[in-house]
Amino acid sequence: MVWFLSRNKSRNKSRREELLNEIKRSKTKKGEFIKWLEKHDLFFKKSVSWKELIDDLSHRRKPTNKELAEYIKDMRKTMSKVRTSSITPRHEKGHKFEKKVARWAKRYFNADDVKTNILVNGLSSKRPYEVDVHVIKGRFLRKDIWIECKNRKSSIKRVDVFKLLSAAKDIEGACKDGREDFYFDRLAIVSTSDFDLDALSYAEDNDVACFRYTNNKYELKNKVSWI
Question: pTM score, two decimals?
Answer without folding.
Answer: 0.61
